[in-house]
Every structure is written in structure tokens, then in C-alpha cells.
Specification:
Elements: E1 7-15, E2 27-31, E3 34-36, H1 44-57, H2 66-69, E4 72-74, E5 82-87
Antiparallel strand pairs: 1-2, 1-5, 2-3, 4-5
Length: about 90
């Protein structure tokens, strides 16, 4: 089991045709109950894609869990081609 990670960073891995203005490398950090975008806007639709699994990633999970092996999620609007990566900053 991996230790809990209350701090999770959501990074834009790919952005083929986003209409919301996000770019590859844009990120939001979830630290416990708070969100930080570093003062930059972050697409709420993209954030909605990761909200269901954030709680799972902030708790202990097995090292072979799919969220550790393949930490990628897609934005709900498939036409934009936005892929997000969840990472646990040290």
C-alpha cells in the first residue's frame, strides 16, 4: 500500500483543441480540501473529470492500482482531446 497523499496535482498532459483556454502543462493542486491554480484559470469541465477519483488518490492505495499505473483521465468533452494526469508531488 502506498501512504496517503492528501496533496494531488492535476496536470494537463494533452490538449488537442480546447475551447476553454487550458494548455499543456497547466495544473491545479488539490491540498486536502483546498484547490490552488497558481493564479491561472483552470477549466471546470476538466476538473469535473478528476473529482470522482481525487478522494481515492488522497487515501492509501495499492502500488499496482490502476490510478498509480495509468493516472490519466479525459475531459468530459471528447471533442477537445484534453487528457489530465494525476500525480502525487513529494
Amino acid at each position: 500500500m502506498l501512504p496517503p497523499c492528501p496533496r494531488v496535482r492535476v496536470v494537463v498532459e494533452r490538449a488537442d483543441a480546447p475551447r476553454c483556454g487550458i494548455r499543456v502543462g497547466d495544473a491545479v493542486t488539490v491540498d486536502g480540501p483546498g484547490l490552488s491554480t497558481g493564479g491561472k484559470p483552470f477549466c471546470p469541465m476538466a476538473l469535473m473529470a478528476v473529482l470522482p477519483v481525487l478522494g481515492m488518490r488522497q487515501n492509501p492505495i495499492p502500488a499496482d492500482d490502476w490510478l498509480v499505473r495509468k493516472p490519466y483521465l479525459c475531459c468530459p468533452d471528447a471533442t477537445e482531446g484534453v487528457v489530465l494526469r494525476l500525480e502525487a508531488p513529494r
